[in-house]
Amino acid sequence: MDSSRSAQRAVIQFLRAEGKHASQIYLKMKEVYGEQCLTWCTIFRWCQCSEAGHVNIKDLPCPGQAHVMTNSATILAVDELKRQNRLINTHEIAVELSISKGTVHHIIHRKLGYGKVCAQWVPKHLSENQKTARWELDPSATQEFLH
After folding, report:
1. Origin, by domain of life (predicted)?
2. Which among 42, 46, 110 has a CA at the least distance from the CA of 74?
3. How many domains does one find in the chain?
């Protein structure tokens, strides 16, 4: 059974055309769809929209959604810029390719799998032979160390 939003919206429109109230529609859909059922608020809102004359069962694009799809050409362009200059940041890539910083971030981290690696200073572990050789090369360092 298809429990997608568009399928449930079609059921709501059908039951609304039969004259059912939003609460009746919710109870009926809760029986059929169970946990995948839309919330009561959503069903009520969609009933109001169908009364206002909206008949489209597909979701309309919301404001703030990305308008540029991450296609293979965009991914390759970001990868190429990143390979040419490892120090380039997301803002510079976004300006270069005329896409949003969020899209660049998504491509770099999710599609290409790049991640930042933090370098950390760690003490060297020298063998006894290496320590002796180091002291023999610089006798002044030995004197400073002893005082």
Report:
1. Eukaryota
2. 110
3. 2
Q: Per-residue pLDDT tens for 32-47? A: 888 888 888 888 888 8
46 and 10 together in one domain: yes
Q: Judge if 73 and 36 occupy the same domain.
A: no
* Among the listed residues 7, 17, 24, the one whose alpha carbon sits nearest the alpha carbon of residue 51: 17
d(CA 44, CA 21): 9
**Model confidence over 43-93: pLDDT tens digits?**
888 888 777 776 666 666 666 655 556 788 999 999 999 989 888 889 999
The residue range of the domain holding 70 is 65-111
Token readout for 121 is 């200073």
* Structure tokens, 28: 């009926």
Give the count of beta carbons closer than 10 Å to the beta carbon of residue 105: 13
